[in-house]
Amino acid sequence: MFLIPCPWCGEREESEFSYGHEAHIERPKEPEKLSDAEWADYLFMRTNPKGPHLERWVHTAGCRRWFNVARNTHTNEILAVYLMGEKPPKGFARKSAKRAKS
Length: 102
Description:
By secondary structure, this protein is mainly β. Helices cover 9% and strands 32% of the residues. It has a single domain, classed as Folate-binding fold.
């Protein structure tokens, strides 16, 4: 277990939160024009790094607000917390995951 600093409630145990998946996934502007493979990439393909990762979390047992976290997935160290709609802190860039070509 690790502690997550909620921007509104302060530091709380991980069990009070729910993971909301990778942060900064942009919805396609014209989804009807995507191929099935492109739509599947949008829906299912995510990065899974061992190290720094940008994530969305919600404080389900507290204020119920969403926020973003930069977290090291190897050590669970929280590197930064920032609000929804804000850009990631400098030095953190989202890398897109793409389906392997067969």
